[in-house]
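dude i think i finally got it to work??
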Amino acid sequence: MSLINDLINLDLTDTTKKIIAEYIWIGGSGMDLRSKARTLSGPVSDPKELPKWNYDGSSTGQAPGTDSEVILYPQAIFKDPFRRGNNILVMCDAYTPAGDPIPTNKRHAAAQIFSHPDVEKEVPWYGIEQEYTLLQKDVRWPIGWPVGGFPGPQGPYYCSAGADKAFGRDIVDSHYKACLYAGVNISGINGEVMPGQWEFQVGPSVGISAGDELWIARYILERITELAGVVLSFDPKPIPGDWNGAGAHTNYSTKTMREDGGIVVIKKAIEKLGLRHKEHIAAYGEGNERRLTGRHETADINSFSWGVANRGASIRVGRDTEKDGKGYFEDRRPASNMDPYVVTSMIAETTILLK
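look at this
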């Protein structure tokens, strides 16, 4: 094993200019991350310098076997925390050989919204709070929980310390540092209300980069849990009953919201979000109805509400935003398994482009 570890950690920079690029894309389920690696002749810092590549879409649920070739377009580059050196992770989206985005490519439509002049002018900022649950590999039950049983009720686990309260911190801290190494704008971590559940935050990030960074952060977490022999779950309600679900609360502001008098713009934006509540809910993640029950710090899925410092509302405005008369608000509706390209672009579309 020591030899294997030596080889895994082998630094290539002194022996070759060649690097390894791990091309990453989203599979047919919309949540399954796929990747494969290729050798490049030297370091690359701009995704435009990277070659397009292809994969077998019939094996990912994204193309028929009779016409299975799907083309990867490199879109964003991050440093590889696993191979290190000059090696890179490459976030890609997927197209047909004719150059049309395949149906599961949500990034393409999001990029069109974020490139709209009215959206670009507003410089939309996002901060996404990604909650997730760590499960024991063989029994698919949260880590730290007795197999077939339950821990004590919620209360002592949120932001906790101690072997009987905080389960999986080694994975969480490894992920935190790996994201910083990669260049992901990860802004923090914390233990969540349900034991075995954690959260990391990405942002503030501008426009399409919020989606790129969250997907790469998810990929890095998948790789770390793979190494740890733990299963990563983004299910919005992994354990039925009196346990908190998992969301991806999305904090949002525009240039005019951040300026003096921005609270007026914020209130108008919230009003627009209320008018399209059903459309947003339909795009905010699978199984979200199991989470948005009006309990466990959520609003009911069928109603729209907002309030200052109210974690039981659809939209929460912070105390500082109210006091300063400018700032940001939090959309608490997205589920943990939402697509950040869809959610971030939809919020921008509704609040900026909807007249």
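Residues 117-353 form a domain with the Creatine Kinase; Chain A, domain 2 fold (CATH 3.30.590.10).
im so relieved honestly
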